[in-house]
Design goal:
The complex is a heterodimer.
Chain A: H1 4-21, H2 23-26, H3 29-54, H4 62-78, H5 84-106, H6 111-131, H7 133-136, E1 142-143, E2 148-149, E3 152-153, H8 156-178, H9 181-191, H10 193-198, H11 203-229, E4 231-232, H12 239-252, H13 256-273, H14 280-294
Antiparallel strand pairs in A: 1-4, 2-3
Helix pairs in contact in A: 3-8, 3-9, 3-11, 3-12, 3-13, 4-5, 4-6, 4-11, 5-11, 9-11, 12-13
Chain B: H1 2-32, H2 38-56, H3 61-89, H4 94-116, E1 131-133, E2 136-138, H5 140-162, H6 164-174, H7 176-181, H8 186-212, H9 218-233, H10 238-258, H11 261-278
Antiparallel strand pairs in B: 1-2
């Protein structure tokens, strides 16, 4: 038996999704592009939230995996002549392998040390993309071959539905994961690592799992972005992109719903502040400061308070 | 050989720039455990005030320095009073507090950028001409940077160890509860730390401005390198962070002069990764 509240909730969600799915009928390609970027933001934020929001480990280097996904998709098609879906699959495998290897040294760090370590990794990937001119095209960038689907060139509408389906799938996966044994283990690690260790949770393994899922989702978003945009350059994956990832999670709030809201909010915010002509960055900063001042636990934190524990906010010297 | 010595000298100067920013970050971090990213904008702001007052209005350096001291001091106080303390008081996660200060940096650099229409902001050297040392030619601006670093470090050491306020500041950093118990006004001490850190960053900005040609968005770059210097030197050890800055400055300049400029960044961050993994508390941790 389904109770009435639940039915209403599902109906509301279904109605909203149906509305979003009809978007290509009403809006032009530019707004559709924004919708795609928001969807990619949601996928990225969901992965990062699993790592930061649920297991309390920060990743300030999401641009690294976004770039790995994008460059793998672009290079495998341009140089190896693979089909888009095959190269996307290989890109995801590469991202997972890189995440598994790099997490060995990185996940020994915590808090700010982890933030800096992951940032260092992202900057190294960025600089390598600039330095290896023959392979990646250097800072001039790389053109991604167009995707041909059943004899037709895939357009914005195709990517819109692809991103929509993937974003929903990622959300459901995260939702499932969080309410399973894995999710409980991650939250235990966030609350108190030694206590989690003492109660028999393999802390290292769960941290690495969350890190790898984060890398997987980010590379997925990056790969689709490369194919949709048709052109990639290192400038897209610089330090500011890392900041965007953190902003999505912090502004949205530490929950799956928060990542959805944060991902959309942060991806669309530049479109609103552009109205302030030369002062758009100032407006961007002002909005961020105001949002964080009045909603320190993110937008969803207003609704549901108290997901973070004291240990994370304690002042002290245990930051590294 | 001359070129080699000049390269080393430039590296040392760049190292002192990073070191000064790292020093200003540590001055706040040691007292209240927060990294104040707005100090990158104090650095940029010092240079920008120099541009407005010295380049555009032709005012003397002494007056400019006074304006910088007051402006960055107020900025540091406001950062703490409006943003950091209220957030910490509500038990906000530390990353959120740092992200909020990053938002404030966008607010400030965006404002200055809007005013200058995102143009470069050149500042004349404080001492014009060039000095000759044997066969070497040395720009006085570089010597000014080194002197500033020496004065700031010495001054801060004297303040920290010889004055009652400095000792109260240190006590707050070592043990808050105990400091409160012996009658130290902890909130005022935290405010003082923010003011001092911001002023050091502001002074660094005006001193460095003639060497680098400032731009409204440069704050984040220098802050990041200062932060890395602080971590390499040992976050929490102000004097170690100065040495961390020197290591980074020398490494960067040697790689970009003798290997390839692009690899300077890679070398810096590889060094950071190695230090983080091998000695998570930095090279000179206390």
């Amino acid at each position: 038996m389904l109770d009435r509240g639940k039915v209403n909730k599902y109906l509301a969600i279904g109605f909203m999704l149906a509305l979003v799915a009809c978007l290509p009928l009403f809006v032009n390609r530019y707004y559709l592009h924004l919708a795609i970027m928001s969807g990619l933001g949601v996928i990225l934020a969901l992965g990062l939230n699993l790592l930061y929001g649920y297991s309390g480990q920060i990743n300030f280097g999401v641009a690294a995996f976004y770039a790995i996904g994008a460059y793998a998709v672009a290079l495998l098609q341009a140089k190896a002549g693979l089909y888009f879906f095959a190269s996307l699959a290989i890109a995801l495998i590469i991202a997972v392998l890189v995440a598994l290897i790099i997490s060995l040294p990185l996940l020994r760090l915590r808090h700010l040390g982890l933030a800096l370590g992951t940032l260092a990794f992202a900057v190294i990937i960025y600089s390598l993309a600039c330095a290896m001119r023959d392979f990646t095209g250097g800072s001039d960038g790389l053109v991604v071959p167009k995707l041909v689907l059943l004899g037709y060139k895939a357009g914005t509408t195709f990517y819109f539905y692809m991103v929509l389906v993937l974003a929903i799938a990622c959300y459901l996966a995260c939702h499932h994961l969080v309410s399973s044994k894995i999710g409980r283990a991650l939250m235990a690690i966030r609350e108190d690592e030694s206590a989690a260790l003492a109660s028999g949770i393999n802390v290292d393994r769960y941290k690495r799992l969350a890190f790898t899922i984060n890398a997987l989702f980010t590379a997925l978003a990056g790969g689709i972005y490369a194919q949709h945009a048709g052109f990639i350059a290192p400038a897209l994956f610089d330090v500011h992109f890392n900041l965007l990832g953190i902003l999505m999670v912090v502004v949205g709030g530490p929950s799956n719903l928060g990542s959805v809201i944060g991902g959309i909010f942060i991806m669309l915010l530049p479109e609103f502040v552009i109205a302030f002509k030369g002062y758009h960055i100032m407006a961007y900063g002002l909005i961020l400061v105001l949002v964080l001042m009045f909603m320190p636990r993110g937008i969803t934190g207003l609704i549901k308070a108290g997901t973070f524990k004291r240990s994370q906010t304690r002042l002290g010297r245990s930051l590294l | 050989m001359d070129i080699f010595f000049l390269t080393l000298f430039t590296g040392v100067c760049v190292g002192f720039i990073y070191g000064l920013i790292a020093f200003s970050l540590t001055a706040v971090y040691n007292v209240c455990g927060v990294l104040n990213f707005v100090q990158g904008e104090c650095f940029m702001g010092g240079a920008a005030i120099g541009f407005f007052l010295m380049t555009q209005l032709d005012l003397p350096f002494s007056l400019t320095l006074l304006v910088i001291l007051v402006a960055t001091g107020i900025l540091g106080f406001l950062t703490n009073y409006v943003l950091v303390s209220p957030l910490l008081g509500r038990r906000t996660p530390l990353i959120t507090v740092i992200v909020a200060t990053i938002g404030a940096t966008m607010l400030i650099s965006g404002g200055i950028g809007g005013i200058t229409e995102w143009r470069w902001m050149p500042v004349h050297p404080l001492i014009s001409g060039a000095w000759h040392l044997g066969s070497l030619t040395i720009m006085p601006s570089y010597v000014v940077i080194i002197l500033t670093a020496v004065v700031v470090v010495t001054g801060y050491w004297l303040f920290e160890n010889k004055t009652i306020y400095g000792m109260a500041l240190r006590a707050t950093g070592i043990n808050r509860a105990m400091a409160e118990l012996v009658g130290i006004q902890v909130p005022s001490m935290i405010a003082l730390a923010f003011v001092i850190g911001s002023i050091i960053a502001g002074i660094t900005g005006i001193v460095v401005a003639p060497v680098i040609t400032p731009h409204p968005i440069m704050g984040m770059h220098y802050l990041l390198l200062g932060f890395i210097s602080a971590v390499v030197g040992g976050l929490g050890n102000a004097y170690g962070s100065m040495i961390g800055g020197l290591i980074l400055g020398l490494l960067g300049i040697v790689i970009s002069s003798y290997v390839f400029p692009v690899y300077a960044d890679i070398a810096t961050f590889v060094l950071l990764l190695i230090v983080l993994v091998a000695r998570p508390k930095g090279l000179f941790a206390r």
